[in-house]
Design brief:
Elements (H helix, E strand, L loop, with lengths): L1 H22 L21 E3 L7 E3 L8 E6 L4 H15 L4 E6 L3 H11 L5 E5 L3 H6 L6 E5 L5 E6 L4 H17 L1
Parallel strand pairs: 3-4, 4-5
Antiparallel strand pairs: 1-2, 3-6, 6-7
Amino acid sequence: MALKRFFPLLAFAVFSLLLWWGLNSDRDIHEIKSPLINKAVPAFQLPLLYSPSDTADNSQLEGKVSLLNFWGSWCYVCIQEHPFLTHLAENGVHLVGVNYRDERENALEWLEEHGNPFNQVWADAEGRFAIDMGVYAAPETYLVDKQGVIRYKRIGMVTPEIWQQEMEPIYRQLVAE
């Protein structure tokens, strides 16, 4: 009987703890761990954006370290990220763009207007590959090793700071392997 009297207090304490955890400003949403880290990129076959009758599959990720970037012409943050991706491409980083849930014409116009830093651009118009990859929204970026294994996931924009502090050391290690 005495335990029943404390149930509302216990429920309030649990609710308060969950609320505090949810509002904790120190938590970084970009650090959500992917269950796909150290696993192969899920099997896929996607049309190429520039020539939709041709397709890409997992074999395009073998033999080189790739930065796999999900983006869309509708994505406000993607346009902010784009100059740094261009900088990475100019410095030899192999970039694969996955155009995510977009209209082909809009994506082509966007790349023509802003430039195309990608070595390849795949079209995931329905977002099925993105679901398999665990994408929440664009932009999201993965580092994939030479065997097609996911080694890192970034939710949100890749900035120079993020690249230098988190991604570049992993990228360099993967290139050296």
